[in-house]
């Protein structure tokens, strides 16, 4: 009986210890983290009611023929869409175009960054979803742009072109140029998959791989052209067409010269 009691006490003590350790070290859910700062969420709700509620509804459920639901898009989608000026949209189009953001959401100003954080916290607290990375700016550039280039060519180049200059898609949509996008905007775009872009979870591309892709994009955006004319930065397709045109023009000219000589 003593052994049984001792065993039961040992099991109970072990379970209590595991419970305490889990409560102390387990990460809190993203929604719970956002709910901790009620003042920030209240400010975000006011901003949402002033700028977003008409199209996205009082409960983030969306409004038919005006705007989609924001449930599950997270703080990351809010940052990407609003900081890049894509939201609010002036009118319904095939794709939201990049433009200068509203002054109150300009990420280049302290007020704009604070308002973006508050609006994102409100959407995060009520809808959940991916959150913006803790790092900002150049801190989001990885250490291996070479690996980032390989990952970019596998996952991004088919739409954004080899050097990030963008390209046309179907149904009036397009892959935008990546040069104007900040590191945070590129990262949050990979997290949320705006427009025709696929969403890359951390299982598909780890945070470090995302950062390496950003490092590659920023390196080619500011690369020199030691070979001369950049051919608009369109990559090997443009180079191949240019070489073909030059060679064919030379062959045609040579054939004309031979005909004239004979």
TrEMBL record:
<feature type="signal peptide">
    <location>
        <begin position="1"/>
        <end position="23"/>
    </location>
</feature>
<keyword id="KW-0813">Transport</keyword>
<dbReference type="Pfam" id="PF00034">
    <property type="entry name" value="Cytochrom_C"/>
</dbReference>
<keyword id="KW-1278">Translocase</keyword>
<keyword id="KW-0479">Metal-binding</keyword>
<feature type="domain" description="Cytochrome c">
    <location>
        <begin position="39"/>
        <end position="221"/>
    </location>
</feature>
<keyword id="KW-0408">Iron</keyword>
<dbReference type="Pfam" id="PF13442">
    <property type="entry name" value="Cytochrome_CBB3"/>
</dbReference>
<protein>
    <recommendedName>
        <fullName>Cytochrome bc1 complex cytochrome c subunit</fullName>
        <ecNumber>7.1.1.8</ecNumber>
    </recommendedName>
</protein>
<comment type="subunit">
    <text>The cytochrome bc1 complex is composed of a cytochrome b (QcrB), the Rieske iron-sulfur protein (QcrA) and a diheme cytochrome c (QcrC) subunit.</text>
</comment>
<dbReference type="InterPro" id="IPR050597">
    <property type="entry name" value="Cytochrome_c_Oxidase_Subunit"/>
</dbReference>
<feature type="transmembrane region" description="Helical">
    <location>
        <begin position="240"/>
        <end position="260"/>
    </location>
</feature>
<keyword id="KW-1003">Cell membrane</keyword>
<keyword id="KW-0349">Heme</keyword>
<keyword id="KW-0812">Transmembrane</keyword>
<keyword id="KW-1133">Transmembrane helix</keyword>
<keyword id="KW-0249">Electron transport</keyword>
<keyword id="KW-0679">Respiratory chain</keyword>
<dbReference type="InterPro" id="IPR009152">
    <property type="entry name" value="bc1_cytC-su"/>
</dbReference>
<keyword id="KW-0732">Signal</keyword>
<keyword id="KW-0677">Repeat</keyword>
<dbReference type="InterPro" id="IPR009056">
    <property type="entry name" value="Cyt_c-like_dom"/>
</dbReference>
<keyword id="KW-0472">Membrane</keyword>
<dbReference type="InterPro" id="IPR036909">
    <property type="entry name" value="Cyt_c-like_dom_sf"/>
</dbReference>
């Amino acid at each position: 009986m003593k052994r049984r009691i001792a065993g039961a006490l040992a099991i109970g003590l072990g379970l209590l210890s595991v419970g305490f350790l889990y409560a102390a070290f387990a990460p809190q859910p993203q929604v719970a983290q956002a709910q901790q700062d009620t003042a920030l969420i209240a400010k975000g709700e006011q901003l949402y009611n002033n700028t977003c509620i008409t199209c996205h509804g009082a409960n983030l459920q969306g409004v038919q023929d005006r705007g989609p639901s924001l449930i599950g898009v997270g703080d990351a989608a809010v940052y990407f869409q609003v900081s890049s000026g894509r939201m609010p949209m002036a009118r319904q189009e095939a794709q939201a175009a990049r433009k200068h953001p509203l002054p109150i959401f300009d990420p280049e100003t302290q007020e704009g960054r604070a308002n973006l954080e508050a609006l994102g916290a409100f959407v995060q607290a009520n809808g959940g979803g991916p959150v913006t990375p803790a790092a900002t700016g150049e801190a989001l550039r990885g250490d291996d742009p070479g690996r980032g280039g390989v990952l970019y060519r596998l996952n991004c180049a088919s739409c954004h072109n080899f050097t990030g200059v963008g390209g046309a898609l179907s149904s009036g949509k397009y892959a935008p140029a990546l040069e104007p996008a900040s590191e945070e905007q590129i990262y949050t775009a990979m997290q949320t998959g705006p427009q025709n872009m696929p969403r890359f979870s951390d299982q598909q591309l780890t945070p470090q791989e995302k950062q390496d892709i950003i490092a590659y994009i920023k390196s080619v955006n500011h690369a020199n052209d030691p070979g001369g004319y950049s051919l608009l930065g369109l990559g090997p397709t443009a180079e191949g067409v240019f070489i073909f045109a030059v060679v064919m023009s030379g062959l045609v000219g040579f054939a004309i010269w031979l005909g004239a000589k004979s």
